[in-house]
Write a structure and sequence with these properties.
303 residues, alpha/beta, Rossmann fold, globular
Length: 303
């Protein structure tokens, strides 16, 4: 029997593949508000709009536009890779499980995981940027979620971090080299700040009893240092890593190093199929290139 949330996320899929006219007709007021703000208001004042969205499985989430326009309109993150990732998480987290979210943004996947693992489960989320304020608002009152305004890397001595304006806030990173040739980069330069940092191994040492079944990593170029900081866990446990992996033409050197580190320690790589099930993947770069993908969420697990 399928999971009930798999049926519910079909709404996100349906809305995400609609034409602009179809979206407008299905939610005229909401669509007009989001698009007018993104196209007319935000380009002039560069100020985000804090609002709320009803997620596909029921709870309400506080978001900022224009960054979370997809959640506002569809009830979920609507890129194909993120829909498949949500399905994978739905199919693999059960009550009592533990989930580690590295790069939580506003908390979309944190909230989904918290819903799935229930009161007896545990979710730890790390978000070093100013997005932490909305992450905190979204998780206040959830007894099974603990959040930290820290980066996860290979050091606990702090890091230089770059924050982009709201529209590109999902690209916040310790490494911005991959974006320097993008057309939008010249007019959306990031702010350079210093943030606290920790490591996966230190997280586990300081949180007795916490042993993540799934570890989601979305850190825009910091993947290898995250893995370095979790080498003890990687060598001694069998947690499942989900890593946003960039295509070769997007400066994916850090992703390749992270992949090799995991494979050297007995991990195999998988793509997530349309149904949320895993498909063995021997050559990640080739998979992305042949399918014309800029990135995808790749799963790494031991047999």
């Amino acid at each position: 029997m399928g999971h009930p949330l798999i049926d519910k996320i079909s709404t996100v899929e349906r809305l995400s593949t609609m034409s602009k006219a179809g979206r407008f007709l299905s939610m005229p007021v909401r669509y007009a508000k989001a698009i007018l703000f993104r196209k007319l208001i935000y380009p002039r004042n560069k100020k985000e709009l804090i609002t709320t969205a009803r997620l596909f499985y029921g709870p309400e989430m506080t978001i900022a536009l224009p960054a979370a326009t997809d959640i506002f309109l569809t009830g979920g993150k609507s890129h194909d890779s993120e829909i498949r990732l949500a399905k994978f998480i739905i199919l693999n987290l059960v009550p009592g499980d533990h989930f580690l979210d590295i790069g939580g943004h506003y908390g979309y996947f944190t909230l989904l995981a918290a819903y799935l693992v229930g009161e007896k489960g545990k979710v730890l989320t790390f978000e070093p940027s100013q997005n932490y304020s909305l992450l905190k608002k979204n998780t206040d009152g959830l007894s099974n979620v603990t959040i930290y305004q820290e980066a996860v890397s290979n050091t606990n001595e702090g890091l230089v971090f770059y924050e982009f304006p709201n529209l590109y806030s999902e690209y916040n990173s310790v490494d911005i080299s991959q974006f320097e040739n993008e057309a939008w980069f010249k007019e959306s330069k990031p702010k350079k700040i210093e943030v606290a940092s920790t490591t996966i191994d230190d997280i586990l040492k300081s949180t007795p009893g916490f042993l993540p079944k799934l570890i989601k990593i979305d850190v825009e170029g910091g993947e290898y240092t995250v893995m370095q900081g979790g080498i003890n866990f990687i060598e001694t446990h069998s947690g499942i890593f989900i890593m946003e992996y960039l295509a070769p033409d997007r400066h994916n050197e850090a992703h390749k190093k992270a992949l090799n580190l995991l494979r050297d320690n007995g991990y195999y790589s998988y793509q997530i199929g349309p149904d949320g099930q895993l498909v063995s993947l021997s050559d990640v770069d080739k998979y992305l290139t042949e399918n014309g993908l800029e990135s995808d969420n790749i799963v790494f697990k031991k047999p």
